[in-house]
Design a protein that fits this description.
Blueprint: H1 8-14, H2 26-29, E1 42-45, E2 49-53, E3 63-67, H3 79-100, E4 104-108, E5 125-130, H4 137-142, H5 151-158
Antiparallel strand pairs: 1-2, 2-3, 3-5, 4-5
């Protein structure tokens, strides 16, 4: 039997899947200290939302756009927040296209635990670059992802791109 070790997954499992723990919301805590943006993988701060790398990405370049406000449902978000969220989604697609030259994108939200949201009580948008032939059998066969790039390298490629 072959084994492919992914010890980084233990942090995700131990954290309860990346969501809220002990009444605290991960997505509310992350932007609280701008000095920790690199540590927290925040690549851009806008007025009402911020953009960060997914700590447990499906592919290299997997971005999340998150409102600063703790908002549990999309329909409860204000129009200014959702307008900026969509503008950042579009900007993320442009930047990922420039940096990674993908063949396509997955863009979307999982709203609520039943829909697969890892952080079910704080809305966030996923933007993932995709390539022809990247269906990655490892995810299907052994629930393992193979990522060609370290998160620090991805961070360095994307940090600062939103300002240009």
């Amino acid at each position: 039997m072959e084994r492919l070790w992914s010890p980084w997954r233990s942090q995700y499992v131990a954290s309860g899947g990346g969501g809220s723990a002990q009444g605290r919301c991960l997505f509310c805590e992350i932007p609280s200290d701008p000095a920790k943006d690199e540590e927290n993988l925040v690549v851009h701060r806008a007025a009402l939302n911020y953009v960060l790398l997914n700590l447990f990405p499906y592919v290299s370049g997997h971005l999340l756009i998150v409102p600063y406000d703790h908002i549990p449902t999309l329909d409860s978000a204000s129009k200014p927040i959702t307008d900026e969220l969509m503008d950042l989604t579009k900007r993320s697609q442009t930047i990922l296209r420039e940096v990674y030259q993908p063949d396509g994108f997955n863009v979307g939200m999982n709203l609520g635990a039943a829909a697969g949201a890892g952080v079910a009580d704080h809305i966030h948008m996923h933007v993932l670059p995709r390539w022809n032939g990247d269906t990655n059998f490892m995810t299907t066969v052994s629930e393992t992802r193979v990522l060609p790039e370290d998160l620090k390298a991805t961070y360095q490629k994307l940090r600062g791109r939103f300002e240009s």
